[in-house]
Amino acid sequence: MKFRKLVVYDLRSEPLKRDFIDKLKTFADDVITVFAEKEYDGTLKPEHLKGADALIIRIFDNFKPELWKSSNLKYIGAMHTDYSHYDLDVLKSKGIILCYIPHYATEAVAELTISVLLNISRQTADALNFVKSGRWGFEHFMGWELKGKTMGIIGLGAIGSRMAELALALGMKVVYYSRTRKPEYEKRGCKYCSLEDLLKTGDVVSIHTPLTKETENILNRERLGMMKQGAVLLNSARSELCDLDAVYDLTKAGKITAWIEAVEDPEIRKKFQTIKNILLTPHYGWMTKKAQQNLRDITIKNIEMFLKGKPINKV
User: Which residues have a Cβ under 8 Å from the Cβ of 7 and sit 6 or more positions away?
Assistant: First the structure.
């Protein structure tokens, strides 16, 4: 079994490699690529999907329900873990199968998060740039050590669990709040607690939950206000999990330091530029060679199993 027409929605500035596209061509009679100049620009239109029964989506966008309603798609392969951009009710009503890519960047995201924490605790980037600018001295860079500090992890899924392992390896105490308790991690020294207690006791709070109706704004102004003076907030997940206005106020007041990886709104990024103790990075936690290979391999496996009538990683 093959698809009649497979559409790839890709990023022009960093397109998928030719060998991957060639592999996709073995699954369809016709493969076309629709290029977007950037994420969230709404390039993909109903006319692009005319005659298509399969769609591979490389980039994030705000997909309108009309896009799916007017299509004859049977399969959507999302090349990411986050599927909050899709109207699942509409897809279900149209009989469109959506498959995603779980756990492909677990190590990459966890390691990036720890690297940001180490940068905050030791001001690494500032020290490097200080010497590069021709200056010298140590008196500007008083740091603090992670050993003995409490890491509070919100969401002990794949990435949250890896974060717990890394934190324990660094000598940190680990408390966690998650939808389900994880006895195997409690045996290793992690302590389950309420979200409120986690925020009150954590020297570092790291959030690793997917964005859903239940988790959106889970760190609202009231809860963020519970964080300790001098605590660090790490968000390698979606920015919508946090009240960004509250993050701005708390960092500006010097109560907390925060890192948020994926602030998509340029106006919010501009606003945050004036605050020294808030760190922003592009949404690049998944950008490692190994994670990208995992991504391609699982995407191909998802297609193969769908065509065999045994879909895996189905949302």
Answer: 31, 32, 33, 34, 48, 49, 52, 54, 55, 56
Residue bearing tokens 């061509």: 25
Rg (alpha carbons) of the chain, rounded to whole number: 21
Handedness of CA 217, 218, 221, 224 (dihedral sign): negative
The DSSP letter of residue 121 is: H
Distance (Å, rounded) from C-alpha 138 to C-alpha 94? 63
Label residue 176 exposed, middle or buried (CB < 10 Å: 0-12, 13-18, 19+).
buried
For residue 300, the SS3 value is helix
What whole-number distance in Å separates Cα of residue 179 and Cα of residue 149? 24
CA distance 238 to 216: 9
Long-range contacts for 101-104 (Cβ within 8 Å, ≥24 apart)?
101/294, 101/295, 101/298, 101/299, 101/302, 101/313, 102/158, 102/298, 102/313, 103/158, 104/286, 104/291, 104/294, 104/295, 104/298
Question: Which domains, and CATH codes, for the chain?
Answer: 3-104+289-307 (3.40.50.720), 106-280 (3.40.50.720)
CB 136, CB 124: distance < 8 Å: no
For 15-73, how does the pLDDT look when each residue is reduced to its tens digit (9 = 90+)? Answer: 999 999 999 999 999 999 999 999 999 999 999 999 999 999 999 999 999 999 999 99
| pTM of the predicted model over 0.90 | yes
Rounded to an integer, what distance in angstroms lies between the CA atom of residue 102 and that of residue 110? 14
